[in-house]
Amino acid sequence: GELAVKGPDLPAALGRLGLLPPSAASLQTLAPPALRAFDARAEFSGDLQSGAFALGSLQVDALGFRVDGKLEAARSDKAGLRYDGKLEVVGHTPGPLLGALTGQPLAGRARTLGLDVAFKGQDDALALAPLALRGVLPGANEQEIALSATAEGAELALTRKTLAVPKLAFAVGALRGSGSLELVAEDDKTRASGQLNVPPFDLRALFAS
Question: What pTM value is reported for the model?
Answer without folding.
Answer: 0.85
